[in-house]
Amino acid sequence: MVTIVFFGTPPFAVPSLERLVAGGERVAAAVTQPDRRRGRGQRLQPSAVKSAALAHGIPVLQPARASDPAFLAQLSALQPDLGVVAAYGKMLPDSVLHAPRLGTINVHASLLPKYRGAAPVHRAIMAGERETGITMIRLVRQMDAGPMLARVVHPIGEDETSEMAERALAALGADLLLTTVAALASGQAIEEEQDHARATLAPRLTREDGRVDWAQPADTVRNLIRGLHPWPHAYTFLHGTRYLLLRATVASRAEAERLTAPAPVGTIIEAHGDRLHLACGEKTVLALHEVQPEGRKRLSTRAFLAGRPIALPAAFQSGAGPA
Predict the structure, then answer these.
(1) Residue 133 belongs to a domain
(2) One domain, residues 11 and 157
């Protein structure tokens, strides 16, 4: 058994923490981001990791900065053998990474060296990747660039969203973490350097990432919709109103050829019953199945068109100007 200090914040990190506890490892403390104001009432809410840690009786530390001398003193007093990071949310200084006897490792949700950064799952799906995975790495100063200790592959399903993939990866990562900890504790872990020339980045998401460019092919737009679910969502505008695009498929080549003949990109080709078809780039067609007007509830295409009929000709816009 090794003494572990766990660093994590969102729901993705909770299975890793709970797997360590269930596996009999000694988690001396959980380090997580400070409570944030959320919801309509803007009440202070704990992170998912804080709630899970307290449920297991694990002490919780919430430094404003990991470099604070007071926090570093607390960390040193714990005399940890190993630091474990799973989506903590901030870069950790060398003074933290090297405090544990065995160093600090990270549960990273991509097949490194691809998708280093804060949003690896979303970026992989947005890019149309067919697989992703978990890579266990030793943390170094450069972001997600440390030597690899273990990895596992997760095939991305045709309709899989980032939310679905992240949930699956959280479970895979938790299992891989336990075996990696055992290998480190026994001195049997094998480290492999990343091929840094093949590295790609997965920067933090912004709302602007969700803006749909209808000049892109339909499969690219669909990947954007899947990759940005549940936040910030792909979105577009119609008559000045912003609409979130929640679920879509790509029309067959034959149907696209039948529908798109003279249609500029963004044109709503069909809008009746359960059919809401949009012209996209390269003469492709996107079929929307679920949308959400800003500030309203999510609706199936049929329910949406029943309540808000669209008179053709009309077109979705990338900006908020008139359609």
Answers:
(1) yes
(2) yes
